[in-house]
């Protein structure tokens, strides 16, 4: 007797297949929990290797970071990447730098702890949420598809669902914001900390170098934000997002006439501690 394997063919009117995503929800009145929140504490499933690659590319070649979103859109049906590994990794780096800033410039454990909390939850997370919320409403309506005369004027969802038309997702706005923050961390939380004794001195060369550091950091933030939204095919005139670079250049030139940015905007000052060593 020969045994032939039985292969069942898919039903003609059966449910759509699920390629790596969450199980389809056939309830029309229910609301699915976004995959980002489902994976929030599933550390073994997080792709930290991908997060490290993105961090490296954001400094060297930031355009590469957003080239893979088309593949992600085809396989997951969402522009948002539901993997919090980048957020966790950058938060950990901010934790380490906050310890360095606290040990160098804060008096006591309480102020050091305050710097740690402010760096992670205010500077990084709260600021990223604020920027992503503003971008979600402004970019989605002003640069997205919509009715003539008022582009993007339509319903927007926090996270796209299967079968929905192209729309700007809040999760993707947050992805762009946290990735744009990484160069800010590199230049203002790491490089500035190492060179603080030099750039905070009372010399014009120190003023020039310190202020240029802020120009580069915020310039990176603007360019990465532009690249993130420019990668979405349904957004138009995204070059308008580069306008802040001209404003930053003008403010940088004005600051060279005596306004030392590190003395007024150093990250540890935002946390309420006072800099020592002549600052």
UniProtKB/TrEMBL annotation:
Q: Where is this region: Disordered?
A: 1-27
Entry keyword set: Membrane, Transmembrane, Transmembrane helix
Pfam families annotated for this entry?
A: UNC-50
Look up and give the membrane topology term: Multi-pass membrane protein
Cellular component (GO) terms are:
Golgi membrane
User: So which domain of life are we looking at?
Assistant: Eukaryota
Q: Which InterPro entries match?
A: UNC-50 (IPR007881)
Q: Which residues cross the membrane?
A: 86-105, 117-139, 180-200, 207-229, 241-261
Q: Where is the signal peptide?
A: none
Q: What is its main location?
A: membrane
Q: Where in the cell is it found?
A: Membrane
Indicate whether Isomerase appears among the record's keywords.
Answer: no
Task: Note the PANTHER family from the entry.
Answer: PROTEIN UNC-50 HOMOLOG
**Hey, which family's this protein in?**
Belongs to the unc-50 family.
Q: What is the protein name for this chain?
A: UNC-50 family protein
